[in-house]
Amino acid sequence: MPEFKAEQVVWRKSRRSNPTQDCIEVAVADGTVLLRDSKNPDGPIMVFPLSSWQALLNRARSGGLNPGCDARHRAARLRNSTTAP
């Protein structure tokens, strides 16, 4: 894992995160995305290339991480919900 000095890393939580709840924190350093558990800031850190993180975010935003959200499943659900029993 690349080494990062504390002053190089600025950790952020989601704007949607409740300040009293634990969540993940994200930082970007030298084109690398870092993730950590907010309740364990000295614990392990997950490291991703920026391109992989961007691909994950794009897939999440498009509904691609939920197997029920791809176009085939949406169309099938729509057909099933409009068909009378």
Could you give the topology of this structure?
Layout: E1 24-29, E2 32-37, E3 46-49, H1 50-61, H2 71-82
Antiparallel strand pairs: 1-2, 2-3
Structural description of this entry:
28% of the residues lie in helices and 19% in strands. Strand 2 (32-37) and strand 3 form a beta hairpin. The chain is elongated, with a radius of gyration of 18 Å. The model has no long low-confidence stretch (mean pLDDT 77). The chain contains two helices and three strands; from the N terminus they run βββαα. The chain starts with 23 loop residues before the first strand and ends with a helix. The protein is of the alpha+beta class.
Give a summary of the structure in a few sentences.
With 85 residues, the protein is an alpha+beta fold. The protein has helices at residues 50-61, 71-82, and strands at residues 24-29, 32-37, 46-49.
